[in-house]
UniProtKB/TrEMBL annotation:
A family per Pfam: BrxC
Organism of this sequence: Chryseobacterium vrystaatense
Source lineage: Bacteria, Pseudomonadati, Bacteroidota, Flavobacteriia, Flavobacteriales
Protein name: Bacillithiol system protein YtxJ
InterPro entries xrefs: BrxC
Length: 126
């Protein structure tokens, strides 16, 4: 890993490599995530891959999740690659777009959301 990768985040902190992430890459993926919220609480992490703050928050969040005994149902959205889906989330769930953003959904409804330094795994498990 290069010096710049250590500072700014390289391939090793890529969320697709974490086994607990389920990717949202289509409207169908989003619909399945929302459907799963009727069975148990889910969380969607909207991430801007070009933003240093978003990378830092994501890295810290992943460390929190790694330390949990039981992993929550987590979905990851690269909002730069899938901007229309990010917009659909905002419209359908009545949320203002932010990045990074963690959205907690239960029974098809947003029960909590946070952005930037307010993002924490405690919002999912509480």
């Amino acid at each position: 890993m290069s010096f710049f990768d250590k500072i700014f985040g390289g391939k090793q902190d890529n969320p697709e490599r974490k086994s607990f992430w389920k990717k949202i890459e289509s409207e169908e993926d989003l619909a399945k995530a929302i459907e799963n919220s009727y069975h148990h609480r889910i969380a969607i992490f909207k991430h801007s891959t070009r933003c240093f703050i978003s990378k830092t928050v994501l890295s810290n969040f992943e460390k929190e999740i790694d330390s949990l005994d039981q992993k929550p149902d987590l979905y990851y959205l690269d909002l730069l690659e899938h901007r229309p889906i990010s917009n659909k989330i905002s419209e359908d769930l009545g949320l203002r777009h932010e990045s990074p953003q963690l959205i907690i959904i239960e029974d098809g409804q947003v029960v909590n959301s946070a952005s930037h330094e307010d993002i924490s795994s405690s919002q999912i498990v509480s």
